[in-house]
Amino acid sequence: MRELKPWLELILKRPGRLVVGGFLILATLLSGIALLAVSGWFLTKTALVGLLLAAGVAATINLYVPGGAIRFFAVSRTVFRYLERVYNHDTVLRLLTDIRVNLFSRLSRATRVRRGELSGAQWLSRLTSDVDALDTLYLRLIAPTALAGLVTLLVVVLAAILFDVGTAVLVGLLLVIALAVATVGVYLRTWQLAARQSDRQEELRTAVIEHIEGFSELTAAGRTGKHAAWLMRQAHQVTSEQAKTDTRVGWHLAGTHLLVNLSAVLALWAGFVLFQAGTLSGPVLVLLPIALLGLAEVYAMLPDAFGKLGATIASAARLNRDCREEERQAVNEKQELPPETALLADNITVKHAGYAPLFTRFNLEIEDGKRIGILGHSGSGKSSLADVLAGLLPVAQGSLARRDCVYLTQKTVLFEDTLRANLLLGSPEASETELWSMLEQMELAERFATEPDQLDTWLGSAGSRLSGGEARRVALARVLLNPAPLVILDEPFTGLDAETRSRIAKRMESLLEGKTVVSLAHGSDALPGTDRVIYLSG
């Protein structure tokens, strides 16, 4: 249960909405039980009066008060249910917002290495199914359980008032057992199955996505059918375990209903004893048993919720593990740098967790406004070094101080959005004129001027509507729009032909004027203008 603690604390930050939502659920439940109880009382009273009149005995009945009560509870039940659905679903959406903002905040502070530990399919599972398992925690589990306990207490008090304390104690005992069967009993019987089911569903979801992504390779290797058959076996195992969980939940639901019905029978039997003693009227006799039968609606919500609690805890555990905040070595602020120095790496070690160091005792000092090129063959550690200099990969040893920087990663990253939105990530305050000017420098202005939407052209998933070279130039334009004094460029001209690369490199001279530049590439022809070049070996 401790896995749920941080998420429960997040949910409980909205106590006002939770209380109002709980009140609406309670009002709906009480209206339903009251409607059943008053209807039962009214029918019994009407039947008794009819029998007395048939026997020639004078008898009267007030039709207006119970009739009005029945109409009132029927309307109030409908109204409260509607208000509860609208209000609590709005609350759930607000809680979902809180959970996602908290989750994204934690992810934004995680290192690139941490985010790279999971595949895209696994992150999709975290951000969808695992989050969905938490956002209804209040509406599906917390509120119904608390209100079931409260309604049970009210019914026991009603039994003590209408019948006697002995009957109330026996009825209360049966209801407490029923509540335990519907909650704790279900959880103990299903949590391991549900947790394992949650893990296997994620594994199956990941495998299906990978099957779709690798369909061409599977087809070329002639393995499509065998891999699909393996997926079907995995799916069958998942559904088999789900059926086992549902069976256990069903038996506990049946047991809960049995205990509620037994409490109604007990109340009816005790009522007959009191009726024969002349201390209880016939209509009041049936009021309590019918109210107890109304509890079945309250308890019916609980077994399914507690049957999924194990999966919810497993989802919370995965989110806590994979999205945890970690200790990161902070990059020193610019005031800690020596005068007129943009970057200072002092005896640093560059390594990925679990692997041998790529560099040890690496030293680099760059003065303001200088342009440094770093060359090395593929696999020499250029991108890892760039990640360290940009602050995405923590320094294993030594110290690093630098000014604020902007970083063009080796992999081109464009978002499924418009050209304008992608460019404004570099400089949110940039004007339309500045955006077109930068596109002109990147030789993209004519390309997008002919588009119907121009700057609002949709780029598609990961820039799929652009060629590799066009996408790279959009990413480079976004970086050059950023006013940061330190610019780190990893393979800035990937996908560009030699002539285009040469023309853009010349234009970058003026665009980078006054800035400190660290550019990394595999060859000198892939670097913009530099003051000196460092060669990496290994």
From TrEMBL:
It is a multi-pass membrane protein. Keywords: ATP-binding, Membrane, Nucleotide-binding, Transmembrane, Transmembrane helix. It is found in: Cell membrane. Residues 19-311 form the ABC transmembrane type-1 domain. GO terms for molecular function: ABC-type transporter activity; ATP binding; ATP hydrolysis activity; ATPase-coupled lipid transmembrane transporter activity. The chain crosses the membrane at residues 20-43, 49-74, 141-163, 169-188, 258-278, 284-302. GO terms for biological process: cell redox homeostasis; glutathione transmembrane transport. PROSITE patterns: ABC_TM1F, ABC_TRANSPORTER_1, ABC_TRANSPORTER_2. GO terms for cellular component: plasma membrane. Residues 343-538 form the ABC transporter domain. This is Transport ATP-binding protein CydC.
